[in-house]
């Protein structure tokens, strides 16, 4: 059990981008490759957890020995994660979820017309905030914060407003951090304090995050 400290635990991880359709041909998305979330999911599995990975469309190899739920839109990701609300011990929301979706997806390919195009967007549900609200006293929720400025300030707001136990904050404009890279530079925020970590591989960071979340779980449950 010593090297499998998450044995018997259920861990849900989200990863990758979401895609929001404009019409049957086009969609809006972001640059997330899924590398960060997949690394977290593999670390959780290797530490002994029973893992469900809810993933947006990525071109990474599907990890083995875990459940993989493939979704495309933020609404689909919301439904997949919410369905697991009573089952998880630890939830890690590394996915880059679109804050908005198109109000009315066109049934047919939009025709080119004029020199300007105006599209109405509506907000997507905030999955992390929703799960933070539903969270039971013995469950641990971890979010990410992707910022381009005021990292700690913005991430602190996300920690509080989204009901997370831990936020992994990354600043996109740091060289070794962010989308698609194999490394990341993060600051970890919890109710107990703020820790800036050195640059590390996303693989190693996956273990670092899971170990910290396990400590929080142990403390909450007094085990
Ligand atoms: O996939 P990679 O290429 O490896 O890149 C990694 C990463 C940069 C995508 C990752 O490290 C990261 O920062 N993921 C979170 C991206 C994000 O959406 O950050 P945010 O600050 O916009 O959102 C804050 C948190 O709320 C996140 O946990 C996000 O999953 C969650 N959220 C946001 C909007 C929404 N509608 N629902 C959510 O659950």
| Major sheet: arrangement of strands | 5-4-1-6-9-10-12-13
Shape: globular
Low-confidence stretches: none
Distance between the termini: 14 Å
Query: In the CATH scheme, what's the topology name?
Result: Rossmann fold
Our count of helices gives 5
Work out the oligomeric state of the chains in this entry.
single chain
As a percent range, the share of strand residues is 25-35%
Number of strands: 14
| CATH architecture label | 3-Layer(aba) Sandwich
How large, in whole angstroms, is the Cα Rg? 18 Å
CATH class: Alpha Beta
Number of structural domains: 1
The average pLDDT is 96
Mind sketching the topology for me?
Blueprint (H helix, E strand, L loop, with lengths): L9 E6 L4 E2 L5 E2 L6 H12 L3 E6 L11 E4 L3 H9 L7 E4 L6 E3 L18 E3 L3 H8 L5 E8 L3 H11 L4 E6 L11 E2 L1 E5 L2 E4 L3 E2 H20 L2
Parallel strand pairs: 1-4, 1-6, 4-5, 6-9, 9-10
Antiparallel strand pairs: 2-3, 7-8, 10-12, 11-14, 12-13
This protein binds ligand PMT.
